[in-house]
Amino acid sequence: MQKISIIIPSFNEASNIRALYNEINIALSENQEYNYEFIFIDDGSEDGTLAAVKDLTLLDKRVFYIELSRNFGHQYAIKAGIDFSTGDAIITMDCDLQHPPQVIKNLLDKWKEGYDIVYTRRKDHQNISWFKRTTSDLFYQFLNWASDLNLEKGTADFRLINRNVVNAFKGFKESELFIRGLVKWAGFRQTAVDYSPNSRYSGKTKYSFKKMISFAFRGITAFSIRPLKFVAYVGLLFFILSLILIPYALISYFIGQAVPGWTSLIISIIFFGSLQLFMLGIIGLYLSKIAIQSTHRPQYLIRDSNYQKQTQNESIG
Q1: Which residue has the higher pLDDT, 184 or 9?
Q2: What are the residues facing 120 on neighbouring strands?
Q3: Using CB atoms within 10 A of its CB, is residue 91 exposed (0-12), middle (13-18) or buried (19+)?
Q4: Could you read off the pLDDT of 264-290 as tens digits, one per residue?
Q5: Distance (Å, rounded) from C-alpha 207 to C-alpha 211?
């Protein structure tokens, strides 16, 4: 019987743990075709998230936890679950129940058809705020324009990945993970499943507007050098303009039509100074990624886990 690892990154989600566990069990109760395991990754929670998971381990031997040493971030928590999982396929989903457990059956059906990756596309409800819909649309439009990816609107971190892809993912050692992009970049046989998100069961969203901007820049710098090309093109454009303006300035000076003025000078200084800072900022983003990557630090650190202990006991038995 094939084994499915359900990977659930959790950060301050104590009130959602039991509800999600119950909903997944209900959704899978009619499907006895697979063995399931639950891997909760506690990403440095400051509430009772880990305690809630440990309570579940006492009730169900299929429930495991991986406690990270601090809050490394959503993408790294997912990667930790991927690295530790042993299932023939894995399913990653959020802990707030916005990813409907009922969709897991659809993911498994597509997997049975032979797909290596089954990703999901979120279909937003009309009751979602205009601001959230607009910023989400801009996120995907800007990311696709500025990077070499072609992520579909609403692509989520709710997906199924086959074991051959999981083994490939374990070799990724990038310092700034953007798993949605890596999944698209990896290739293999992929297909999509649409879903309508539920409302968050409890708690507050962990993705602020600031984090979404940071997430977009991470995706762009991880998969494209287009911003660097943009800097080069802008530099070339202003170099050509300067070649045109220099003769004009010299001619104006010699024929006595040059009018001294500090306004144009100040405007020029502010404009070109800001432009240089902008260009240096983009270059700095890439240099910082290189510097961080060169340290070869681990992507995450684990404080405690019952997963390795359990799998070792099973292999011994």
Answers
A1: 9
A2: 193
A3: buried
A4: 565 566 566 666 666 676 676 666 666
A5: 6
